[in-house]
Amino acid sequence: MKEAPLKVAVVFEIFLPVVNGIVTSGVNLAENLRALGQEVIFLVPDTGEFREPSLGGVPVYRIPSLPSRSYPGMRYVLPWNRAVGEILTRERVQVLHITGPWFLTMAAVRAARNRGIPVVHTFHTMVHEADYLLYMVRFRRLVPLVRRLGWRFYGWYIARCAAHTAPSALACRVLARQFPHSRPRQISNGVEGALFRREVPSREEVRRRYPWFGEQTVLFVGRLGREKSLEVLIRAAGVLRGRPGLEGFRLVLVGQGPEGEGCRDLVKALGLEGVVHLPGYLPHGELLSSGLLHRARVFATASTTENQPMTVIEAICCGVPVVVPDVAGIRELVEENGLRVAPGDPRALAGALEALCTDQDLHSRASRAALAMARRFDGAAVARQMLELYRQVLRTERGASLAPERPGRYTSRYDGKNDGKNGQRRDDEDTDRSCNF
């Protein structure tokens, strides 16, 4: 017998016009759930900028909020906001899906539990990493203390969820280590494959629109923040400047953020104005239709704080070889479709970029492997996995048997022993792909 459609509320702590991996993957999930006949609503903080009543057919409920300095784009919402509960009741929401721990999420979780609505949590951001915590505290020596407090704060949410997911094996292990009863399941971020198979401008057309675009363009797309290690990318470009066979080499950093001015200053200081370009932010649709991503020679990131970055997945879906640091989490996305390099090493990164820019056989093999890998991230398949989890939670006495035995007394097992240098993840965290704890 066909099961009745569900109504799911997805909570975002950051929303449009800010675009990040959580927003992109969450919107894709909602679109594919709707294609499967389900109903979805969004709960988002009201920034005064996004005013549309819906997005792609999904109603958007904006909750009054105030600016927060804790992290760019984050907002304060009263944790006891009554409007959230009224929306859940009026919309007859059956499952609440949260995407990050902050105060709108706290209000939504409180309201859901008061109404017997089970909560599903996705662990998207490696919030324990030093580069993220330094947005909250300015002194690195305070990071261990803030990390311990942060895990305890996160534990409040973990204790009140019926099920947990994470897009990468690493994130599953991190969550299970801190909260042993959470039993996270790996469900990948999804993308809409058709968006990447569309006809795009030729390389010549891209060059006419963007004169700095060349045959050997290396692209980065993302927030220009300290956690992205952009200095490593820029210094790698400096290593490659003027090398024989790399006359067409360009590094293009698409995005905006607090480190944008610092990046421009570094480019100028190194004399790389003709090699490194920062065109600013491009809306997602414009980025995909422009041909910049599809026609890039390589997609590269130096970030060591990633979980399962959507920008890397999108490059893979375009058949673009990728270069990433060889650290737990992001290395799960690179097999034969690119190269992994020592983290924080501009010369190692430069060597990998040079290889993919000059070795056509290597580039062709990596491109074919990327297109083959793209099938793993099919948004419809991801939505089916998530829908089955929602139904499982509802079947299991509204999620009660999947929740921790003593809600409200859920604490982290963090002891500091699993940290790498300066709070960076250790490579040995990625020894096992299994994460169904």
From TrEMBL:
Residues 400-437 are annotated as: Disordered. Residues 19-192 form the Glycosyltransferase subfamily 4-like N-terminal domain. Residues 203-370 form the Glycosyl transferase family domain. It comes from the Bacteria. InterPro entries: Glyco_trans_1 (IPR001296), Glyco_trans_4-like_N (IPR028098), Glycosyltransferase_grp1 (IPR050194). Residues 406-428 have a biased composition (Basic and acidic residues). SUPFAM superfamilies: UDP-Glycosyltransferase/glycogen phosphorylase. It comes from Alkalispirochaeta sphaeroplastigenens. This is Glycosyl transferase family 1. GO terms for molecular function: glycosyltransferase activity.
